[in-house]
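The passage that follows is intended for readers who have already worked through the single-chain material. We present the inputs for a multi-component assembly, then the predicted structure in tokenized form, and finally a short commentary. You are encouraged to pause after the input and sketch how you expect the pieces to fit together before reading on.
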Amino acid sequence: LAKTTQPISMDSYEGQEVNITCSHNNIATNDYITWYQQFPSQGPRFIIQGYKTKVTNEVASLFIPADRKSSTLSLPRVSLSDTAVYYCLVGDPRDDKIIFGKGTRLHILP
Amino acid sequence: DSGVTQTPKHLITATGQRVTLRCSPRSGDLSVYWYQQSLDQGLQFLIQYYNGEERAKGNILERFSAQQFPDLHSELNLSSLELGDSALYFCASSVARTLRSTDTQYFGPGTRLTVL
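Having made your guess, compare it with the prediction:
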């Protein structure tokens, strides 16, 4: 299972776009990139998943460069309610393991 | 609301005691996963059950055990509790049989266990 590296914490302001980058230098050909969001005192929630280029849904966008050694979760126009921990996971659909790590603690300021 | 329910929400007990945490998965999900989250360790996978059978094991202590019943609800039993067992315990469910990060898991609200 490819190891990921994320910033421990980030601060931003309401209305800003926030980009959280995850490094996964050893990503394998079959690995997908998945992001979860965890609000305080709640369980994690799936946000988005991708393999290459760009994926967008109603919550976020995921940008994956051609070499796939990193990925960026983009949250448009954040609000105070986006304060949460964001986890980047990298895994092979054939590999029966899951590792959440410690994630990135995002703090949105008014 | 993920559709996964966990009871109780909070549990306070003493060292040496035994507790049972309960989880009901989303309707239609056959897999139940248990996780432990403590302040310094992040989210750690403990064990997975699929349709009543143990499917995968993670960093689960021998003092801990789990089972999944015919109605698919699951219980996590923690015995001989120690101070270090104080943590949030999450249950998640999925339609998938696997433990892959590519299969979406739906998490419950958690049970906060405090061991005094």
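Commentary: The mean pLDDT of chain A is 91. The interface with chain B takes residues 1, 32, 34, 38, 41-46, 49, 87, 89-93, 95-103 of chain A (CB under 8 Å). How closely did your sketch match?
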